[in-house]
Amino acid sequence: MVFHKCNCRIGPSVLASDMSCLASETQRVVDAGADYVHLDVMDGHFVPNITMGAPVIKCLRKHSKAFFDLHMMVSKPEQWVDDMADAGGDQFTFHLESTADPMALIRQIRAKNMKVGVAIKPNTPAESVEYLVPHVDMVLVMTVEPGFGGQKFMAHMMPKVEHLRTKFPEMDIEVDGGVGVGATIDACAKAGANMIVAGSSVYNAADPAAVIRQLRESVERYGNGKEPTA
Ligand SMILES: O=C(CO)[C@H](O)[C@H](O)COP(=O)(O)O
Ligand SMILES: [Fe+2]
């Protein structure tokens, strides 16, 4: 177990919601205890799927004050920084694999007053993102191949989380893909993740508030420096 003192935050991914009712579906998880909302932006090029762009996020912003973590699964992230900031994005999480000049992109995002996240795909080693840690707010370790919700959790990504947590005890580390109550969240928590994206497990649940609570309990039990009680 890798302990840390980072705040636990749970961010449901609206990808698993009924996206024809995005405003009420966002509110539903906020009411259920979500700390932030994870919005998956896919361009059909970086990943083989298309979801939403800045116009949709701008409309959603009119209905929600939640913190919007924009997971930018796009080939040219630089192209969308201004639009996403204007749309009301709070954090711009780009993929390390999508840009030739991460530092320039980080400066561009900061200039628009958004927080910065950097994501790595399953085949990208944790070491490759280390040099960016002092310049970003969060690292996202993908636990599925980006592109689709409802995929199987990749447990073999946990050594990457553990490696980063050991080196950076105070950094926000997010996991995304296939995370739900039970073995998957426990593995993430033990490895040291403190920001938890959960799509299907929250939106498909009969009681989303109970799922969010149990995800949080796992992080607080295994990751936040407390000994397990059971
Ligand atoms: O980035 C993503 C996929 O590329 C999604 O955020 C992720 O898949 C969450 O959905 P689920 O919890 O259903 O796996
Ligand atoms: Fe995502």
UniProtKB/TrEMBL annotation:
Keywords: Carbohydrate metabolism, Cobalt, Isomerase, Manganese, Metal-binding, Zinc. GO terms for biological process: carbohydrate metabolic process; pentose-phosphate shunt. Substrate binds at S13, H71, G147, F148, G149, G150, G178, G199, S200. PROSITE patterns: RIBUL_P_3_EPIMER_1, RIBUL_P_3_EPIMER_2. Its cofactor is Fe(2+); Mn(2+); Zn(2+); Co(2+). Pathway: Carbohydrate degradation; pentose phosphate pathway; D-xylulose 5-phosphate from D-ribulose 5-phosphate (non-oxidative stage): step 1/1. It comes from the Eukaryota. Its EC number is 5.1.3.1. The keyword Isomerase applies. Binds 1 divalent metal cation per subunit. HAMAP family: RPE. NCBIfam families: PRK05581.1-4, rpe. This is Ribulose-phosphate 3-epimerase. It comes from Capsaspora owczarzaki (strain ATCC 30864).
